[in-house]
Write a structure and sequence with these properties.
Layout (H helix, E strand, L loop, with lengths): L28 H12 L8 E5 L5 H8 L4 E6 L2 H13 L5 E4 L16 E5 L8 H13 L3 E6 L10 E10 L2 H4 L3 E9 L3
Parallel strand pairs: 1-2, 1-4, 2-3, 4-5
Antiparallel strand pairs: 5-7, 6-7
Length: 192
C-alpha cells in the first residue's frame, strides 16, 4: 500500500491557505530532466560559473555543483525557497550561493563575473512569468552564456527561440500533474 508522503497527498490534492503553496517544495519535471541532463553530461558545467534561475528547492543548482561547476548561484523570488536551497546544498555537501530576487531583475551588482551557463527548470509555467523569464534568458545568451531550460510542455515556453537537445521520461506526482509520467525536454536557446 502506498502511503501519502507529499505536501498535497494528505489533503487529497487540495491546498487551503491564504498563502500561496510552497511550489519550491516539489521536484517539478523540468527541473528533474535538466538535473539529470547535467549529471549525464557534466562537461556542460564542469569548471564553469553557473546561474540557476527560479531555482525552487535547488535541485538543478545542486546537480550543477555535483557535476563539477566552478561556482553555482541560485536565484529565486521566494525567500523560503532560498532557505531550502541552502539546506539542500548542505545536505548534498556542495556550495551554492543563493539570492532572493526576481529572475527578470537586473543582474546582482556584486556579481562581477557573468555566468557561463544559465539554467532554468520548469520556469515557463504561467503567461505572466514566461515573458520575464524569456527576457532574462535572452539577456544571458546575448552576454555569451549557454542557456538550458527543462520544460515538460507547460505551454508558455517560446519554442521558436529554443532547440530541444534531449528528452527524458520523468515520473511525477499524479495529484499535481494529472499523469504519472511526463516526457520532458531539455532545451537550448538559439544564439540571439
Amino acid at each position: 500500500m502506498n502511503r501519502p508522503v507529499g505536501l498535497f497527498d494528505l489533503t487529497g490534492g487540495e491546498f487551503r491557505s491564504d498563502e500561496p503553496p510552497p511550489f519550491w517544495a516539489f521536484a517539478w519535471a523540468g527541473g528533474q530532466a535538466l538535473a539529470r541532463h547535467l549529471l549525464d553530461h557534466p562537461e556542460i558545467v564542469r569548471s564553469r560559473r553557473v546561474l540557476d534561475l527560479a531555482s525552487g528547492s535547488g535541485l538543478v543548482a545542486i546537480a550543477a555543483a555535483l557535476a563539477g561547476a566552478a561556482q553555482v548561484r541560485a536565484v529565486d523570488v521566494d525567500p523560503a525557497a532560498c532557505a531550502a536551497v541552502l539546506r539542500n546544498a548542505a545536505a548534498n555537501r556542495v556550495d551554492v550561493r543563493v539570492a532572493a530576487a526576481d529572475a527578470g531583475a537586473a543582474p546582482d551588482p556584486e556579481d562581477t563575473a557573468e555566468p557561463e551557463v544559465v539554467l532554468a527548470g520548469d520556469a515557463f509555467y504561467s503567461p505572466s512569468v514566461a515573458p520575464r523569464m524569456t527576457r532574462a534568458l535572452r539577456r544571458a545568451a546575448r552576454s555569451g552564456a549557454r542557456v538550458l531550460v527543462g520544460d515538460p510542455g507547460r505551454g508558455y515556453l517560446p519554442e521558436h527561440l529554443f532547440s530541444r537537445i534531449a528528452e527524458y521520461p520523468v515520473p511525477v506526482t499524479e495529484l499535481l500533474e494529472e499523469t504519472s509520467l511526463l516526457v520532458t525536454g531539455v532545451w537550448e536557446i538559439h544564439a540571439t
